[in-house]
Amino acid sequence: MKDWTFVVYIVAALLASLLIGAHVAAVDARRAEPPVYLYVVTSRGNWCEACIKLRPTLEQLEREGCPIVRRYIDEPSGQAAATRHGIKSVPTVLLVVRRQVVGRVALISNGPGNK
Q: Does residue 112 belong to any structural domain of this protein?
């Protein structure tokens, strides 16, 4: 299986470039969420090889200050998020700017429903 870490780094670089402007640095007071963040729908299960490989990258990005919202497909909130955003495979990383999805990276995992 290919290592998709570079794709996440590209998305993170785009995120960082958007965060540079002072107008983007402010927190949206209506929902107290950052104006730019990664929204990740993934799995906690061991069946998702790509999810397992993506975890260290997401953890590193979080340590470096990248805002990340995670939803897990194995939980009801994750299933609702997948339906809401039309996500067909996990892991999927969405780049959200001011509540609008402006980028999407869907990785392919060998697992239930993705064989």
A: no
- Show the DSSP H helices in 1-115 as ranges: 5-19, 22-25, 49-63, 76-85
How far are the Cα atoms of 17, 47, 84, 90 from residue 62, in angstroms, in the given order? Answer: 16, 24, 24, 19
- pLDDT (tens, 9 = 90+) of the chain, 115 residues, equals 455 566 666 666 655 555 544 334 444 444 566 788 999 999 888 888 889 989 999 999 999 999 999 999 999 888 999 999 999 889 999 999 988 999 999 887 655 554 4
Pairing verdict, β 92-97 and 36-42: antiparallel
Residue 24 lies in a domain: yes
Report the C-alpha gap between 56 and 111 in whole angstroms: 20
Could you tell me the CATH number of the domain that includes residue 78?
Answer: 3.40.30.10
